[in-house]
UniProtKB/TrEMBL annotation, chain A:
<keyword id="KW-0472">Membrane</keyword>
<dbReference type="InterPro" id="IPR050166">
    <property type="entry name" value="ABC_transporter_ATP-bind"/>
</dbReference>
<protein>
    <submittedName>
        <fullName>ATP-binding cassette domain-containing protein</fullName>
    </submittedName>
</protein>
<keyword id="KW-0547">Nucleotide-binding</keyword>
<dbReference type="Pfam" id="PF00005">
    <property type="entry name" value="ABC_tran"/>
</dbReference>
<feature type="domain" description="ABC transporter">
    <location>
        <begin position="6"/>
        <end position="253"/>
    </location>
</feature>
<dbReference type="InterPro" id="IPR003439">
    <property type="entry name" value="ABC_transporter-like_ATP-bd"/>
</dbReference>
<dbReference type="InterPro" id="IPR017871">
    <property type="entry name" value="ABC_transporter-like_CS"/>
</dbReference>
<dbReference type="InterPro" id="IPR027417">
    <property type="entry name" value="P-loop_NTPase"/>
</dbReference>
Automatic annotation (TrEMBL), chain B:
<dbReference type="InterPro" id="IPR001851">
    <property type="entry name" value="ABC_transp_permease"/>
</dbReference>
<dbReference type="GO" id="GO:0005886">
    <property type="term" value="C:plasma membrane"/>
</dbReference>
<keyword id="KW-1003">Cell membrane</keyword>
<protein>
    <submittedName>
        <fullName>ABC transporter permease</fullName>
    </submittedName>
</protein>
<keyword id="KW-0472">Membrane</keyword>
<keyword id="KW-1133">Transmembrane helix</keyword>
<keyword id="KW-0812">Transmembrane</keyword>
<dbReference type="Pfam" id="PF02653">
    <property type="entry name" value="BPD_transp_2"/>
</dbReference>
<dbReference type="GO" id="GO:0022857">
    <property type="term" value="F:transmembrane transporter activity"/>
</dbReference>
Amino acid sequence: MTKPLLELKNVVLKVNRNTPEEIKILDHLNLTINAGDFITVLGSNGAGKSTLFNAIGGDLSIDSGQILLNGRDIAHDSVEKRTRFLSRVFQDPKLGTAPRMTVAENLLLAQRRGQRRGLRPRRLNRQMDYFKEITTTMHNGLDERLTTATGNLSGGQRQALSFLMATLKRPELLLLDEHTAALDPQTSQDLMHLTNQRVQDQQLTCLMITHHLEDALTYGNRLIVLHHGQITFDVAGPEKAALTTEKLYSFFAEIE
Amino acid sequence: MSVMVSTIGQGLLWAVLGVGLFLTFRILDFADMTVEGTFPLGAATCVVAISNGFSPIAATLLAFVVGSLAGLITGLLYTKGHIPILLAGILVMTACYSVNLRIMGRANVSLLGKSTLFKNKFLESLPQYFDSVVLGTIVMVVVTGIVIYFLQTQLGQGFIATGDNQTMARSLGINTDNMKIMGLMVSNGLIAFGGALVAQNNGYADVNMGIGIIVIALASIIIGEVAFGDLTLNQRLVAVTLGSILYRFVLLIVLSLGFNANDLNLLSAIVLALCMMLPVFKQAFNFKHILKRGLDTND
C-alpha cells in the first residue's frame, strides 16, 4: 500500500509566461501519491487545486519539475496518452458525457478509455446486459434510460454516469474535481456515498477536490491543503481521523 | 415525365455533397467553407485526368484523393495552426481557385468526345436521364453504406464523440485533432467526388462551379431533416439523399414560376434560410398546435 504511484517533484507551473502578470500557480509543489490513497484536497479559490489536476492530466504543461508515474516521467506525455492510467470527473455535469449519444454509447466509449480505436464494429448489443447490471448499482434510474440521449438526463444522473464512466475501465489514478458541487444536497450526498463505495470496492487511488469540509473529513485516508501553489498541510491515517472541522477552520484562519 | 426523372437524377448525383458536409456540419458541428473550393477542385482534377487518358473511374477516385488533401490542409490550419475553422476553410477555398486554374490551364475545360462514367453500354442503353438515376443510386447506396458502417465502428464512435463533447472525448483518450482532420479529409474527399460526378454529367468543369455549393449541400441536409422529423443517425444520413431530391423539386417549381437559372443562387439561399428558420416560425406561430387542432376530431 505504500508504493508511490505518482510523484510530483518541484513542479512549477506559471500563467502569463514572460509578461509582467506572470504568476506561479504551482510553486515548487511536491506530492507523493501512494497506491491505494484516497486523498481529499482542500484549498481556497485560486490555490491551484484545479491547476494541479490539469498538470497531472496534461491539459497544462509544467514549466519545471517532474511528474513520475511508477518512476517514469510523464510530464511531456499528451493528454490522450495519460488517459491510459488516468480518468477524471469534472465539476460541470455537461463536461463528462456526450449529450447526443445515448447512455449506453457513452459507457461503450468509456470502456475503451486510452485504448486504440479501430475500424471494428462497436458491438454495443453485446454489452447491453452488462451496462444494465452496472447502472442498476447506481440506484438512480439510469438503468431504465440506457437508450436515452444523455442530454435528456438530469444533472444528477449525468454526473453519476460520468463517475461510472470514469471507473468503468479501472484507472490507476482517479481525479474528482468537485464532482458533486453542482448537484442538490441530497443527490450530492448520494453520489458521494457511491463514490466512496466504489473507491473502496475497486481499491482505487483517488484525489478528490472538495469545498465541503465534512466530506473532506469523512471520506478518504488522507487530506491535503493547497495554498499559494504549495501543499501546506498533509495528514493521513489516525491523524486525519482525529481532525475536526474546528481544527481545520483554525488552520485556515492561520494561513490566510 | 422526363422532367421528373431528370430532377430525381440530379438530386441523386448531388446528394453525395450533402453526405460529405453532414460529417462536418452535423457531426463535428462546424461549417466548413473549404467545400466551395474542393467541389470545382474535384471537377477540374477529374476532367483533366480524363483528358490525359485516365479511365473515368480512376479519374473520379483521384478527385476524391485530391479533395481530401485540401481537407487535410484545412484540418492542419485549424487544429495545429489554431486558425478558426471558418477562416481556415475560406483560406483553402480561396487558394483552391488558383489551384483549379493551374490544373485546368483555363477557366473552362470540356469533356466533349471524351469517355465519362456515363458513357458505357449499360447506362447508354437506358431511356433518357435514367443514367444519372442509376449511377446516382449506386453511388449513394455505396457511400451512405460505408459512412453508416464507419460511424458504428470504435473509431466512428470516437469521431462522433469529438463533435459532441470535445473535453470528454479527450479525457477518454480520443485524439480530437486527428478526428477533426480525418472528418475534414473524408468530407472534402466526398465533395470533390461529387464535383467529379457533376462535371462528367455536365460534360465540362468550370472554375466558378463551386459558388454556392455549401448552400446546396446544406439544403439537402436541412430539407431532409425538416421533411422527416425525428430520426436516428442512420436514418438521417439516408434522409440527406431524399432531401437532395426534394431540393431539386423545389428549384424546379421555382424555375417554373418564371425565374431563370441566373436566379438560382438567390433562390437557393432563400429556400435554405427559410428551412433553417422553421423552428423559430414554429414557435412564433405555434404551428404544431394549429396543425393538431386541424386534424384532431375529438378536440
